[in-house]
Design goal:
It contains two helices and nine strands; from the N terminus they run αββββββαβββ. By secondary structure, the protein is an alpha+beta fold. The N and C termini lie far apart (61 Å).
Length: 181
């Protein structure tokens, strides 16, 4: 009886290790898809919105158009004025000899994700406050609690990233990034 129980425990442990190894391998594969996608992307549209009690208080829009070695950035930052009107600041910039590998700031290291699933080309993850900045490659995120991340892939390329979370000042933030080929 003891040998039977020991065998069941051993088989269970091996199954858990196998499943964990497969999930980690799949996560690495999807991370590589993002890196390789940067070689083919022709534009990236970034939209970040912050609301306070359902009132839009901040909006960041950035369109990046890419050619072989050049990137054109068009950025609009809208902030709520003291008159409670969103005021826009628009800027543009062209960068020659762009390093496309630096366009990918997403880090899908398994240790940074509290939990994740990958189904039908969609990666969904929960990320704690301490790790979101590391996952998204941004030091300016002051998050409270857990963030929800969803990355959609088509034909082994990233096409959309969505992330939502609450800030320490209880604002709701939604990040949407679309990748066009």
């Amino acid at each position: 009886m003891k040998k039977h129980n020991l065998l069941l425990i051993l088989v269970s442990i091996l199954m858990i290790l196998f499943i964990t190894g497969c999930a980690n391998s799949k996560l690495k594969k999807y991370s590589k898809y993002i890196t390789k996608s940067m070689n083919d992307v022709v534009s990236i549209d970034i939209n970040v919105e912050s609301t306070d009690q359902n009132v839009l208080v901040y909006k960041y829009l950035r369109n990046i158009k890419l050619t072989d070695n050049k990137a054109e950035f068009q950025t609009t930052i809208s902030t709520l004025s003291s008159n409670f009107i969103l005021e826009d600041k628009v800027s543009s910039e062209t960068v020659e000899n762009i390093d496309r590998s630096k366009l990918n700031t997403i880090n899908l290291n398994k240790e940074l994700l509290d939990e994740f699933t990958i189904k039908s080309g969609v990666l969904e993850a929960k990320i704690n406050a301490n790790n979101l900045s590391k996952v998204l490659g941004s030091n300016s995120l002051e998050i409270e609690g857990i963030a929800n991340l969803k990355i959609t892939y088509e034909k082994k390329k990233i096409v959309k990233l969505e992330c939502d979370f609450k800030t320490k000042s209880t604002k709701d933030v939604i990040i949407n990034i679309n990748y066009n080929y």
